[in-house]
Amino acid sequence: MAMRRSAGGVTMHDVAAMAGVSIKTVSNVVNGYPYIRPATKQRVEEAIERLGYQLNITARNLRQGRTGMIGLALPELSLPYFAELADSVIAAADDLGLTVLVELTGAVRQREIDVLKSDRRRLSDGLLFSPLALGQEDAGLLDVGYPVVLLGERIFNGPADHVTMANVEAARAATEYLLSAGRRRIALIGAHPGERIGSAGLRETGYRQAIEAAGLTVDPALIVEAGLWHRSTGAEATHRLLDSGAPVDAVFALNDAMALGALHALHDRRVTVPDDVAVIGFDDIDEAKYSTPTLTTVSPGREQIAQTAVDLLRRRIDGTADEPFQQFVADFSIVVRESTAFPL
Fold first, then answer.
1. Where are the alpha helices (DSSP H) in 214-341?
2. 3-state DSSP call for residue 148?
3. CA gap 260, 236 in Å, rounded
4. If DSSP codes are grouped into helix, strand and coil, which group holds residue 341?
5. Which of 51, 154, 276, 302 has the largest CB neighbor count within 10 A?
């Protein structure tokens, strides 16, 4: 069979001719139209594979009034968790033929508001949004004229789909893990006093639940404040803890960056990890596998979060998600490494 090629290569006409169907049927298959007989769909897909046909996504988006781009608004990329989340989102979007426009807010309230209202939203079909400065009282700001999927723990039950992690349950499991190994003086690094909704508040809740369930009393001297969750603040908080003289046999840092800072501070003070003090973090960033000692941590399901968020946003953009706004909580696990060195 002679194949007719356009300047760009194989066309839909070629696929239709080989499969013995109409061009409209080919279009329905490549655009994911659900009501196609399986045998017909199989013939079209086999023809696409044999001919090496590639959909012109740009042209399709223009016909549908879309850009083929989605926004991803994050507080910063200097924190490894957000950098690795961005990588995961970009990979998930690429699988769907979407391009990601990354914007940084610096965790500044006005910049987070500007992201929602910016003219740049016309460059994208929807937004994945991870705020840090906005709170529950700002839920109404998410009522915008384009699809939004919320990430993180600052706003719940807003007018948008929400993909988050099991902060309370995971923090409780991390603390219970330390308790099961006989640690009784477990410090928490990274507290935000007075915070209830937000990663710090939720993870502290899980920590407190585990301590109290073990029949112990939460010692305020072991709850150490830190502002932004960086390596430097983790190290500083650990030095303050040790300077206080409070006995401690384990540290639960509320993210891995602070846990790495804690490891550095403990090494600087000649405290042996894990013999004298066990250390556990939260996020399972790639660097945790290469610290000395390697870092035990909570894996909060970052890949699952990225995949689910992108898929939810795509379905909102396509109009195929007619259900009410959803809240999805990712699975978590504890990844045991040398900084605790005792099995689950």
1. 231-244, 256-268, 302-318
2. strand
3. 11
4. coil
5. 154
To which residue do tokens 């409070």 refer?
246
Residue from 257, 202, 206 nearest 229 by CA:
257
Please tell me what DSSP assigns to residue 291. S
Please tell me the distance from the alpha carbon of residue 165 to that of residue 26, in angstroms, as a whole number: 40
Q: How large is the greatest C-alpha to C-alpha distance in the chain, in angstroms?
A: 84
Q: Give me 187's structure tokens.
A: 């410090």
- Take residue 230 and report the two structure tokens written for it: 């960086």
Contact 11, 5 (CB under 8 A): yes
Question: CA–CA distance from 332 to each of 56, 259, 294 (Å)?
Answer: 38, 18, 19
Rounded CA separation 222/120 (Å): 45
AA identity, residue 297: T
Distance, C-alpha 112 to centroid of its chain: 18
Task: Specify which residues 81 forms β-bridges with.
Answer: none
Mean pLDDT of the residues in the chain: 91
The residue with greater pLDDT, 5 or 315, is 315
Residue 123: CB atoms within 10 A of its CB come to: 12
Please, which contacts does 9-12 make with residues 24 or more away whose CB atoms are closer than 8 Å?
9/52, 9/53, 9/54, 10/51, 10/52, 10/53, 10/54, 11/53, 12/53
**Helical pair 12-19 and 38-51, crossing angle rounded to 10 deg:** 130
Query: What is the token pair recorded at 50?
Result: 């044999």
Q: Quote the CA–CA distance of 189 and 224 in Å, as a whole number.
A: 5
Cα-Cα-Cα-Cα dihedral sign, residues 205, 211, 214, 215? negative
Specify the pLDDT at position 56.
Answer: 55
Per-residue pLDDT band for 65 (boundaries 50, 70, 90) equals: low
Question: Could you write out the three-class secondary structure of 135-177?
Answer: CHHHHHHHCCCCCEEEECCCCCCCCCEEEEECHHHHHHHHHHH
Q: What backbone torsions phi and psi does residue 87 show, to the nearest 5 degrees?
A: -60, -45
Q: Give me 235's structure tokens.
A: 């190290």
Is the whole-model pTM more than 0.90? no
